[in-house]
Design a protein that fits this description.
Number of helices: 1
Largest sheet: 5 strands, antiparallel
Structural class: mainly beta
Shape: globular
Mean pLDDT: 93
Distance between the termini: 29 Å
């Protein structure tokens, strides 16, 4: 199946993506829409996916609206053509099975409202992350409780086909409660669209799969994974815009590990691990999100417990990190954050306090400064940006 959404020949795709990423910080400042994934049900105040507009010139967020009502849409992904949005439902009983769900929505251009196209079983319980390949032909899901990853073909109108691949992870590690079995926590696509990388918190591994975007399938790679330090708990990762470095944030030991990425071979080689917490901090804390600034000079990671954002300078030649600062997240439990288009604002989703806090970001120093803007959203988890 060939989608009309294909963007570029694959041979040129990695270079083009890296070039575009490096230019984003210089793009004109225009308004954009922010989508927020949430936890719903129980004591949560949220009902689904929310959205609001943001004007980067004035720094003013617009009113919050409910874009779609859906159960536990904790993580979101946009189609490359910006006409469809996808969400996991982090549940374990979809359609009477021991599985979560993934939903496809069309986006109303003016209002940003979402209309459900269809849903599919995610292939495992507790799906917690998803991503779309760069050509827009397939989507991938990480099933946390199920310890598996799945691939789904996408139709021309954005609908989800039935899963074409389901890969169960293997392995465990040293943490007596969190690492007794695999827990697939994250999946993303390499810049050249040839591989997917999946963080498994329970196995202390980043699994690598060969991607066939035309068929929407994943195949085991050789070697199948890179191994982290025992008890690290790899949660999420981010590619550097140059496509040569990968940074993994480790939930359990609160570190960031740098890897050299060999794009030709699809292999990871560890470079360095640095702490995300200040020296002497002994209270309970776990990391959550990681992102590299579009200009490639800075990296950000969130600490839940310390309730902060850790900022690092990036040496793009060596992949090594140097600490810059810790900044309070403006709330409790910063589950996720995102750097807005243009690279001049960061949005921190504080799950525990029910607010999305807007920071001004200086692309020349990487430092963050509070703007005083806090957007109320119940149990926010994920933020994604749609240019207007």
């Amino acid at each position: 199946m060939v989608s009309p959404f294909s963007l570029l020949p694959l041979a040129c795709l990695g270079l083009a993506l890296g070039t575009l990423a490096s230019l984003r910080a210089a793009e004109p400042a225009t308004a954009y829409r922010v989508y927020v994934g949430t936890y719903t049900g129980g004591t949560a105040a949220a009902k689904g996916i929310y959205s609001f507009t943001f004007d980067p010139v004035t720094g003013e967020p617009g009113p919050v609206t409910l874009a779609a009502e859906v159960a536990n849409p904790t993580f979101l992904a946009l189609h490359p053509n910006h006409r469809a949005l996808y969400a996991v439902s982090e549940i374990a009983d979809f359609a009477g099975g021991r599985t979560g769900a993934v939903s496809a929505f069309t986006i109303a251009p003016e209002s940003g409202a979402l209309t459900l196209l269809n849903q599919q079983p995610s292939g495992g319980a507790g799906p917690c992350h998803l991503d779309v390949d760069h050509t827009g032909r397939c989507l991938f899901v990480a099933n946390y409780s199920g310890g598996s990853v799945a691939a789904f073909p996408l139709a021309a109108d954005g609908r989800l086909g039935a899963a074409t691949t389901l890969r169960a992870h293997q392995g465990s590690s040293v943490h007596p409660q969190r690492q007794t079995k695999p827990y697939a926590h994250f999946i993303t696509v390499s810049p050249d669209n040839r591989f997917t990388l999946a963080c498994d918190l329970g196995a202390d591994r980043v699994f690598v799969y060969a991607l066939d975007a035309a068929r929407g399938t994943l195949a085991p790679h050789d070697p199948p994974a890179a191994t982290l330090a025992p008890g690290a708990g790899p949660r999420h990762l981010a590619f550097h815009p140059n496509g040569r470095c990968v940074f993994v944030v480790n939930e359990l030991n609160s570190t960031v590990t740098s890897f050299a990425w060999d794009a030709a071979r699809g292999t990871l080689k560890e470079i360095q691990s640095v702490p995300t917490l200040p020296a002497g901090f002994t209270n309970a804390s776990t990391t959550a999100e990681i992102e590299v600034h579009p200009n490639g000079r800075f990296l950000y990671a969130s600490n839940r417990g310390h309730d902060s954002l850790a900022v690092f300078a990036v040496n793009a030649d060596t992949g090594r990190l140097t600490f810059v600062e810790h900044v309070p997240s403006g709330g409790k439990t910063p589950r996720c954050f995102g750097i807005g288009p243009g690279g001049q604002h960061l949005f921190a989703a504080n799950q525990g306090s029910g607010n999305v806090v807007v920071f001004a970001l200086d692309p020349s120093t990487g430092r963050l400064k509070t703007t005083g803007k806090s957007v109320p959203v119940g149990s926010p988890v994920c933020v994604k940006f749609l240019p207007q």
